[in-house]
Specification:
Elements (H helix, E strand, L loop, with lengths): L1 H19 L46 E4 L13 H9 L3 E4 L12 H6 L3 E5 L7 H12 L3 E5 L4 E7 L2 E7 L4 H5 L3 E3 L4 E2 L13 E5 L12 E3 L5 E3 L6 E6 L4 E2 L9 E6 L2 E4 L15 H13 L20
Length: 321
């Protein structure tokens, strides 16, 4: 009886082997079997070649020190520690950077114009709240008079923030569409993605963007990668020009719409980029990011603003508020 059971089991195994084609010479685990899984999950596709992460920031040191103000008064979301390479590059070139206004006026009072007078350039990173009408008027006078403004941001999105007892869900918002619209551009409503491995940085949300023409901002740049890219919509009769555009095949994340998406625009002395993470330490040396960031920093320090721009309310009829 015992021998009979063994014989039945062995016979069943032999039949199963014939039915499945398993004869000891078939493919081993992990090798491609027809219908096993899509090609991108095969062993030879797992170790994707990473983009190079090397380079250095290069900032000009024009005659005379320039002062740059990093806005902190509009609900801005950024980590100062991640900006250290940028801050160090500006300091090494002889420039001064203030994180937040150091004067008594600041951003929340009628002294906004006086605050801007002290600085040659303004860097605005992920502003969560809007600029008042008076501040927008002052910024128009500021850029018309030679002051430089760079705005970096992303569309509204869900994220995790640090709470009292750990990470908690939160919303990252872009609140400065009113101000950027004064320059003919506003933030689009959605993030971007690209599934083409040749158009992303090993992650479908980390898209590539490329220069759309000749501009000092893209000199030496072939590819920039954005990890939380939005897109910019030009509005009205504007002089805003597209500097960087998302790679072909890029789509919106929620609506899944394909199209041509601007990721950086310039209008005179204002530059607007639809990502704020590419200047941080973790993203700075991906592909040509450090070249683009160097060009942005040189843009900030190459303005020629007189000390009395913008005028303080009461000094002329226009005022700032």
């Amino acid at each position: 009886m015992f021998v009979l059971v063994i014989a039945v089991v062995l016979a069943g195994t032999a039949i199963l082997s014939v039915a499945t084609g398993s004869n000891g010479s078939g493919p081993t685990d992990g090798q491609q079997i027809q219908g096993q899984s899509p090609g991108q999950f095969q062993p030879d596709a797992v170790n994707v070649e990473a983009d190079p992460e090397e380079g250095e920031l290069s900032v000009d040191a024009p005659e005379g020190e320039k002062k740059i103000l990093v806005d902190t008064s509009h609900g801005n979301t950024f980590d100062r520690a991640k900006l250290e390479p940028v801050l160090e590059a500006l300091a090494e070139a002889g420039h001064t950077v203030d994180i937040g206004a150091v004067s008594g006026g600041g951003f929340g009072s009628g002294d906004y114009n006086a605050t801007l007078q002290e600085y040659d350039a303004l860097l605005v990173i992920q502003p969560g709240s809007g600029f008042s009408d008076g501040q927008r008027t002052a910024l128009q006078k500021y850029t018309d008079g030679g002051g430089r403004v760079v705005v970096l941001g992303e569309p509204t999105q869900s994220a995790l923030g640090q709470g009292t007892f750990g990470l908690v869900p939160t919303q990252i918002t872009f609140g400065a569409n009113g101000m950027t619209t004064d320059y003919g551009a506003r933030m689009g409503a959605d993030l971007l993605y690209n599934m083409d491995d040749s158009a992303n940085d090993n992650n479908f949300k980390e898209i590539y963007a490329e220069p759309t023409g000749n501009s000092p901002l893209t000199e030496g740049v072939e590819t920039v990668t954005f990890s939380r890219a939005g897109y910019i919509v030009t509005v009205g009769d504007t002089d805003a020009s597209v500097v960087l555009g998302a790679a072909d095949g890029t789509r919106t994340l929620k609506d899944d719409r394909t199209g041509s998406y601007a990721t950086a625009v310039q209008n005179g002395n204002m530059v607007f980029v639809a990502d704020s993470d590419f200047i941080t330490r973790s993203e700075l040396y991906d592909v040509d990011n450090e070249v683009f960031v160097s060009n942005l920093l040189n843009f900030l320090v190459s303005g020629d603003k007189p000390d009395d721009v913008p005028s303080v309310p009461g000094q002329d009829d226009g005022g700032g508020f």
